[in-house]
C-alpha cells in the first residue's frame, strides 16, 4: 500500500447537487480503498451539530441566507475539531460528502453575497482534493425520485440552476475539480478514483 512518510491522512471532498452521485461514489471509494489497505473514514456536512438542530427546529421562521451561512460555518468548525482533523492526524483518508463549497454555492443562491460566504469560510483548511460531480439539475432531481432528502427546501429546479452556476464559479476559481456526473456511475467513479490516486501518489512522492 502507498503510505505517506509522516502518516499524514488525505482529505477528499465530494461536492454537487443532490442526485449527483456523491454518496454512491463515496461508498464505492470506501470499499475499494479499504480493500487496498487504506484506513478510510466517511463523513458529511452539515454535520447536524446542536447549531443546525436549533436552526431547523427553533428558528425555522427566521431562516435566511445569512443565518444559514453562519450556522453552517459554526457546524463546520465543530465537525473539523471533533471528527475530520482527528481522523486525518491518525492517517485516515477522510471522504466528506460536502464541505464549505456547499455553503458558498447554496447560500449565495439564496442571495447572500458570494464573496461574503467565501470569506467567512476562509478560515477552514483546504482539502487535498475537492471534486465537483456536476449534473444537470433535471437529471439530479430525477435520480432523487423516491428518496427522502435531508433538505427538501433546496429541491427546486430554478434554485438548483443557480447553485450549479455558483459551483461552476468555484471551478473557474480553481477550488473544485470538475467531473461530468451525467455519465454512468461506472465512468464517473473511474474518473474520481484515478484522480484521487494521482493526487495521493503525488503527495506521497513529495513527502
Content-based structural category = alpha/beta
How many angstroms does the end-to-end distance come to?
16 Å
What is the CATH superfamily? P-loop containing nucleotide triphosphate hydrolases
Across the major sheet, the strand order is 2-3-1-4-5
Oligomer: single chain
Please tally the β strands and state the result.
5
Proportion of strand residues:
5-15%
CATH architecture: 3-Layer(aba) Sandwich
The helical percent reads 40-55%
Radius of gyration: 17 Å
Total separate domains: 1
Output the CATH class name: Alpha Beta
Inertia-based shape: globular
**Largest sheet descriptor:** 5 strands, parallel
The CATH topology is Rossmann fold
The helix count comes to 8
Mean pLDDT: 92
Question: Could you describe the 3D structure shown?
Answer:
It is built from 8 helices and 5 strands. With 207 residues, the chain is of the alpha/beta class. It has one domain: Rossmann fold. A 5-stranded parallel beta sheet has the order 2-3-1-4-5, sandwiched between helices. It is globular and about 50 Å long.
Q: Which SSEs are present, and which pair or pack?
A:
Layout: E1 10-15, H1 22-35, E2 40-44, H2 50-57, H3 65-89, E3 93-97, H4 100-109, H5 114-120, E4 129-134, H6 137-143, H7 157-172, E5 177-180, H8 185-206
Parallel strand pairs: 1-3, 1-4, 2-3, 4-5
Helix pairs in contact: 1-8, 2-3, 3-4, 4-5, 4-7
Amino acid at each position: 500500500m502507498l503510505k505517506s512518510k509522516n502518516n499524514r491522512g488525505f482529505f477528499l471532498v465530494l461536492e454537487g447537487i443532490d442526485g449527483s452521485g456523491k454518496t454512491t461514489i463515496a461508498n464505492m471509494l470506501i470499499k475499494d480503498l479499504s480493500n487496498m489497505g487504506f484506513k478510510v473514514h466517511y463523513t458529511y456536512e452539515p454535520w447536524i451539530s446542536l447549531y443546525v438542530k436549533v436552526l431547523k427546529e427553533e428558528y425555522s421562521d427566521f431562516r435566511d441566507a445569512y443565518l444559514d451561512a453562519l450556522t453552517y460555518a459554526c457546524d463546520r468548525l465543530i465537525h473539523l475539531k471533533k471528527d475530520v482533523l482527528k481522523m486525518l492526524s491518525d492517517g485516515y483518508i477522510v471522504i466528506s460528502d460536502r464541505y464549505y463549497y456547499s455553503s458558498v454555492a447554496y447560500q449565495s443562491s439564496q442571495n447572500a453575497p458570494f464573496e461574503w460566504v467565501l470569506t467567512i469560510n476562509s478560515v477552514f483548511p483546504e482539502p487535498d482534493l475537492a471534486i465537483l460531480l456536476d449534473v444537470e439539475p433535471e437529471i439530479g432531481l430525477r435520480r432523487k425520485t423516491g428518496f427522502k432528502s435531508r433538505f427538501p427546501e433546496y429541491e427546486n429546479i430554478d434554485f438548483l440552476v443557480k447553485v450549479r452556476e455558483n459551483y461552476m464559479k468555484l471551478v473557474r476559481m480553481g477550488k473544485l475539480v470538475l467531473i461530468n456526473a451525467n455519465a454512468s456511475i461506472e465512468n464517473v467513479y473511474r474518473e474520481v478514483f484515478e484522480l484521487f490516486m494521482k493526487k495521493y501518489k503525488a503527495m506521497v512522492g513529495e513527502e
